[in-house]
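User: I'm writing a short report section on ligand binding and want a predicted complex to refer to. Could you take this sequence and DP6 and write out the structure as C-alpha cells? A short remark afterwards would be nice.
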Amino acid sequence: MSIKSKQAVAHPNIALAKYWGKQSFGHNLPAVPSLSVTLAGMQTSTRVTFDTGLDKDELSLNGAPSGEVELGRVTNLLDRVRARAGFQDRARVESSNDFPTASGLASSASAFAALAVAACAAAELDASAEELSDLARKTSVSAARSLLGGFAELRAGREGDETLAAQQVAAPTHWDIAIVVAVTREGPKDVGSSDGMKHTMVTSPYSAAWVAAAPKMFELVRAGVLARDLTKLGPAVEQSALAMHAGAIAADPGIVYWTGATVEAILAVRKNRALGLEGYLTIDAGPHVKVLTRGSDAEAVAAAMEKVPGVLRTIIARPGLGARVVS
Ligand code: DP6
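Assistant: Sure. The C-alpha cells for the complex follow:
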C-alpha cells in the first residue's frame, strides 16, 4: 500500500472587477477580465491523501461527508493531477473553512486553490504558480486568483487558449486597504455563481453589453490599484458589481440576489461617503455588501454598516497571501 499526503491553505478573494460569464469556446474560460484582492484572516485548509487502498475519491467538508456535486468537481480536478502524474490512485480529501460559508466570501475560490496546491504537492508534481492557477481555473475561474496573494488579475479567455492563469498585479503589502463585509443573511444562497452566470449569458438582453463594457471597468480598477488611488478606482468597482447584477436581474427569469437589507446597505455606503467616510461597494452572487475602504477607516466603516437595518454583523478582511503547502 502506498500513501502520499499533503496539506495546503488558501484564502478567499473578492473581485473588485467582476468575472461573470464564460466564453462559448474552450474550457471554463472567463468572458471578461477580472481583478481581485486575496484576503487574510479567513482560510480553507485542505489535506489530499492519495491512497492505493481506496477505490474511489472521498471528500469531507468541515468534518462531514460532502454531496455528490462537490465530490464530482473535486474528482474533476484530481483527474487532471493524476493524468499529469501518471498514476490512478484515488484520494481522500479533507477540507475545512475557518469562516462561515454563509459569510458571502467565495468559499469555492479558496477551496479549489487549496485543493490544486495540496493535490499537486501530494502527487509530487513540480508545478509552477501559473500551472497551479490554471489547474484551479479549469474547475472554478475565481479560484485561479486565490493562488496568488495580494491583488490578482485574470484576463478574458481567447479562442484557442489551452491554459489561462491569473497573475499578481501587486503584493499584499502594496496598499493598505480593507474589505468590510456587511452580512445580511445567514444560510446558503439561492442560485450558485456557475448556474447564475450561465443563465444570465444565455437569457439576459444585457449580457452582450456587459461583456463589451467590463474590460474598461477592469482597466480603471487595475490603474487605481497600481496608483493606490481609492477615489480613482472606487466608481469602477461599484459599476462593475452593479452592471453584473443588472445583467442577472434582466435575465429570463431574472435573478435577484439582493434582499431589502442589500439595498439599505448600498444606500448607506453612498450616504457615508457623502459624509466623508470613503468606501465603495461590491456585491457577489448573494445578498451581502462588501465595502472597499482604506485600512485606517475599516473599523469606522464596520461600525457604520452595523447600524444599517438588516445588517446582521460585519467582518473586516485585509490583503493576504496566496495558496501554499503547510505540511
Ligand atoms: C460573482 O468562480 O464561483 O464571485 O467559474 O463557475 O466556478 P465558476 O464561478 P465562480 O464565480 C465567481 C463569480 C463572482 C465574481 C468573481 O469572483 O469574479
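A remark for your report: The mean pLDDT is 96. Residues 177-319 form a domain with the Alpha-Beta Plaits fold (CATH 3.30.70.890).
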